[in-house]
Amino acid sequence: MKLRSTYLLVSHGSRDPRPQVALENLGQLLSQKLADSFPAVATATLELGPAPLHQQICSFGEQTLSLGLTQLQILPVFLLSGVHVAEDIPAEVEIAQKTFGDRLKIELRPHLGCQEAGLTNLLKNQMQEVAFIPNLLLPKWILLSHGSRRPSGNSTVEEIASKLGAETAYWSVKPSLSERIESLVRGGQQQIGIVPYFLFNGGITDAIGKNVAQLKQEFPEAELHLANPLGASVELAGLIADLIQK
Questions:
Q1: Predicted structure pTM score
Q2: Using CA atoms, how far apart are residues 213 and 27, in angstroms rounded to an integer?
Q3: pLDDT digits over 156-205, tens only?
Q4: What's the CATH number for 6-113+232-243?
Q5: DSSP E strand boundaries for 146-239
Q6: Which residues pair with 9 in a beta bridge?
């Protein structure tokens, strides 16, 4: 199949190197997933990158043109449709598009969080990896997301939690993880699982781990288990591939 486009995975960016390594691994998995068309895949960050995002796009855009191609697709690797997805990334794409004019078409694809069904299945896999002590009450799960202050910004999280049979908690808005756990323990829950709705390990997941350790001391009558974040995987790369216009 003839190569028609290049693909740029855009994440938030972090001072912690682990998310960038995971993003690059995800890019490699996406490249392998689309091997039939020999796609060119690269990564960029909205914040804390080597240059503003529009400059990173322009740099990859020049590479795209050097391949004899005239289309570049931007793939936002974000779980929530907050201000970064709704405003910041489109603004950076618009700046880059003006730089190229008609020489290159830059197309902004939907963000990863739109793949609700697929993400729900991946979260189920993360939950299944947690082993609870048998013969106690059935575990109750909490889906822990960063959270958004935008109206309806957490609707997708609520919908996924409903499908998982889980409660929701948020890192940046209420209800917090501690509030949710306190409510469950007071209701007699003995086994509680926490599945982070985050892409990769990093500073926030480290902080979540410390928070859970503190909560174990605060609520010794409950057994708390923390699952892993989604992580770079063939399955996650497949969800991103589904967002690409065929």
A1: 0.92
A2: 33
A3: 999 999 999 999 999 999 999 999 999 999 999 989 999 999 999 999 99
A4: 3.40.50.1400
A5: 167-170, 191-196, 223-226
A6: 43, 75
